[in-house]
Design brief:
Elements (H helix, E strand, L loop, with lengths): L18 H4 E4 L3 H10 L1 E6 L5 H12 L3 E9 L3 E4 L2 E4 L3 E8 L10
Antiparallel strand pairs: 1-2, 2-6, 3-6, 4-5
Amino acid sequence: MSIHKAAVPVRNFGPKLDAHQVIIRPLVTEKGNRLTDESRTYVFEVNSLATKPEIKQAAEVLFNIKISTVRTLNVRGKGRGYRFRMGRLSHWKKAYISLQPDSPALDLF
């Protein structure tokens, strides 16, 4: 008995996301630049509802590249104070996208 998985899991929650809604912006940091140079890994801010298969599909469509792995993490919003009131920045999701060796490099800037 073999079990076959679907290529892209069916989304049972939230709205359907377009490729432009999944990837919000690239993150330019020292760590991101080092990862790009050493291991062809790019860092993006993505929609909090996006799944790994959706992020992979959106990046392949938008940038015309081949992706090997997608790693994600949820970043907690930091607390901010203004006078005597405390607030909080929104939580957001970060994605590390690694390219396959035969894929062309991504020129973001």
